[in-house]
Design brief:
The protein is of the alpha/beta class and about 425 residues long. The protein folds into two domains: about 280 residues, Spore Coat Polysaccharide Biosynthesis Protein SpsA, Chain A (Alpha-Beta Complex); about 110 residues, Hexapeptide repeat proteins (UDP N-Acetylglucosamine Acyltransferase, domain 1), CATH 2.160.10.10. Helix content is about 20%, strand content about 30%. It has ten helices and 29 strands. The strands form six sheets. Strands 1, 4, 5, 6, 8, 9, 10, 11 and 12 form a nine-stranded mixed sheet that branches. Strands 17, 18, 20, 21, 23, 25, 27, 28 and 29 form a nine-stranded mixed sheet that branches. The protein is globular. The termini are far apart.
Length: about 425
């Protein structure tokens, strides 16, 4: 029997976090995409989990697979505060061949292989989430729509220009937003009724009544030829044989007073990752990380404050239009439009502009870095200049077509070897 109160109290959030994220290149050589650092102190997965927590959901599971150690360590350190004695739970669910001799074969299989764990908690609703997007969303609103509409599945959707929708799974809906067709990456995306230039793209967020989802997962597991995937198999089957409802992100997007638009980003390429981080350094960014009404939870290390030293002409430690995390020492360095994660050290006479510096990096003296992403622990040699000679940058490091340069310690070692 359903309790009185928010529906989120009877829901479980299940985060699919096993993706490799190969378009992020070397940033995912040793970590899954959801574990990639973002915004100065968080990881990408913290946004989906924080949305669930802030929405009132107190049961969560995270399915991991690809290079999961960094992700699992982060989850253990940062998300272990949920307690069973308060009817809360947090389960990390690595692919472990629980129901077959294979790893997770698809997104639906990543849930199916843990059916016994889910049923043991007996949530009334399941909120299935992708663990690799940046956004703020109140899932309670989506849960309410799901129950009120009587849908078998409710699909979170973005309103995007039709010209940009070909890279998504696109929903064809009627005037009531009931999904009548689901098309994967169409060349001619169907338009939203009444909005001929816009399309509804799937966010990879699904709400089910748990009992219905379990039936669908068991049916799909017995279907020959299925790819065991929500977007490719489960959702199209429900669209054809049941009731699938679209939920527009604009209805449940969480915005502070400073956020003018609904913010959602897939930081799945080096360019998109760099841009989304650098965007945070603007005076009023599109994404407000300072919103105390909707905090982004993460593992908070015990660290000393950031420090800025030296105040001589040409050797002044300062940061303008930048984010600097704890345990950073900006020593005689000019820093602008940049972002330093924890434990970064910069040395005198260096200059950083539009730089995304991951934890534990060190910048040598007289170095000049422009439009770069440094992976964790990179040591930039004295005098190194990046961002001024495109051909040289492309020979030494990974340079994108738009000029963003990704640097790892292995690349630095190859130059010195």
């Amino acid at each position: 029997m359903q309790r009185q109160g928010p529906l989120s109290r009877d829901a479980m959030a299940y985060v699919l976090a096993g993706g490799r994220g190969s378009r992020l290149k070397e940033l995912t050589d040793i970590r899954a995409k959801p574990a990639v650092y973002f915004g100065g102190k968080t990881r990408i997965i913290d946004f989906a989990l924080s949305n669930a927590l802030n929405s009132g959901i107190r049961r969560m599971g995270v399915a991991t697979q690809y290079k999961a150690h960094s992700l699992i360590r982060h989850l253990q350190r940062g998300w272990g505060f949920l307690r069973t004695e308060r009817n809360e739970s947090f389960d990390i669910l690595p692919a472990s061949q629980r129901t077959s001799d294979s790893w997770y074969e698809g997104t639906a299989d990543a849930v199916f292989q843990n059916i016994d764990i889910i049923e043991d908690y007996a949530p009334l609703y399941m909120v299935i989430l992708a663990g690799d997007h940046i956004y703020k969303m109140d899932y309670e609103i989506m849960l309410q729509q799901h129950v009120n509409s009587g849908a078998d599945v409710t699909v979170g959707c973005l309103e995007v220009p039709r010209s940009e929708a070909s890279g998504f799974g696109v929903m064809h809906v009627d005037e009531t937003d009931r999904i009548t067709d689901f098309v994967e990456k169409p060349s001619d995306p169907p338009a939203i009724p009444g909005q001929p230039d816009m399309a509804l793209a799937s966010m990879g967020i699904y709400v089910f009544t748990t009992s219905f989802l379990m039936e669908e997962l068991r049916r799909d597991a017995e279907t020959p030829g299925s790819n065991r995937d929500f977007g490719g198999d489960i959702i199209p089957h429900i669209v054809k044989h049941g009731h699938a409802q679209a939920h527009r992100f604009s209805q449940s997007c969480v915005r502070s007073s400073s956020e003018a638009t609904s913010y959602w980003k897939d930081v799945g390429t080096v360019d998109a990752y760099w841009q989304a981080n650098v965007d945070l350094t603007t005076t009023v960014p599109e994404l407000d990380l300072y919103d105390r009404d909707w905090p982004i939870w993460t593992y908070a290390e015990t660290l000393p404050p950031a420090k800025f030293v030296h105040n001589e002409e040409g050797r002044r430690g300062y940061a303008v239009q930048s984010l600097v995390a704890g345990d950073c020492i900006i020593s005689g360095t000019e820093m602008s439009n940049s972002l330093c994660f924890t434990g970064v050290r910069t040395n005198s006479f260096s200059r950083l502009d539009q730089a995304v510096i991951l934890p534990g990096c060190e910048i040598g003296r007289h170095a000049k870095l422009t439009k770069v992403v440094l992976d964790r622990g990179v040591r930039i040699p004295d005098g190194m200049i990046v961002g001024e000679d495109p051909e040289l940058d492309a020979r030494r490091f990974r340079r994108t077509d738009s000029g963003v340069v990704l640097i790892t310690q292995k690349m630095i070692d190859a130059l010195e070897g």
